[in-house]
Amino acid sequence: MTTPASRQKRADFGFDAVDGHHGGEEKEFAHIDLFGGTSPEAKIVFGNALLVQTKGFNGLLSQINLGVCTRPRVAILNKIPIESIDTAVLMFSAAARGIARAFALKVEDGTIPEELADQGFFVVTVFINYGSKDYKLVEDNNHAATLLAIDNFVYDTNNREHMLAHKDDAHALAPKAAPAA
């Protein structure tokens, strides 16, 4: 198995978009998209994520704890409108904590190099199912999805070759075929 330490990190952290998916439990599954890098475009996307607020769609500056922002800088956005306090708590507490922890771990283990930690700006979009109830599963699944997305970004694993190798795969969220009668 290839370990992160043996993989080659991308040469340019300018700007890219990748995804992270963690199946998790039925309603608490996590799917995030990660956009960012060190370029001026990454800073613009980051700024817009925090400054352009609309009803039901709100940006949040990622924090390890109150007053302790993540490095690199991370804005978290919801993919679907927040329509209840329960969804807001899951988004701005459980999912946000899982995402912040993932960035902290990837800085700590060296996956995110110092340059990217100090100069990077990222936006993470999060899907919260309206039926989600389990705070811990939402946190853990978003944590796992973010770890995957960070690896995809740093090691450029969602590249052209990867896409072509998987173009004919069944979609992970497609309904399963019924068993033959």
- Output the number of helix runs: 5
Shape, please? Answer: globular
Q: What is the CATH class name? A: Alpha Beta
Strand order of the largest sheet: 1-2-7-6-3
Largest sheet: 5 strands, mixed
Structural class, by secondary structure, is alpha+beta
Structure description:
By secondary structure, this protein is α+β, with helices and mostly antiparallel strands. It has a single domain (13-158), classed as Ribosomal Protein S5, domain 2 (2-Layer Sandwich). It contains five helices and seven strands; from the N terminus they run ββαββββααβαα. It has helices at 40-51, 85-108, 114-119, 135-154, 160-165, and strands at residues 16-22, 30-37, 59-61, 63-65, 68-69, 73-78, 121-126. The strands form two sheets. The chain has a five-stranded mixed β-sheet. A two-stranded antiparallel ribbon has the order 4-5. β1 (16-22) and β2 (30-37) form a beta hairpin. The model has no long low-confidence stretch (mean pLDDT 87).
